[in-house]
Write a structure and sequence with these properties.
130 residues, 3 helical TM bundles of succinate and fumarate reductases, extended, single chain, mainly alpha
Amino acid sequence: MADVNRGSRPLSPHLQVYRLQIPMTTSILARITGNGLIVGSLVFVWWLVAAAAGPDYYAFVNGIVTSWLGLLVLAGSLWALWYHSLAGLRHLLWDSGHGLELATAERLGLAVVIGSVAATVVTLALLAWA
């Protein structure tokens, strides 16, 4: 028989029940950055197609890509690339059966976040210096 109290309680555990944990957050970020890399790749392909299309269209697209918004998208794509790569290495470690303890998984998650930010800053500094 159907539960008559169904309307007064949630059907499944709700966000109010869970404490946001680092492994859960980094897993969500890995999915978001994977999709963000698609956006960065499309911008890069658009820039390459514009270069092949001719100087007028290339100047138009290059103006957009080198604007503050375009550079912000490229910097975000660079961070997403670093984050996604480091998260992939973490998953490779997990697949080998290592680092699965909760404390280790949290440290690895923090390492991925901090490492991706540090690698992005270093890469941007090297690009600005070159």
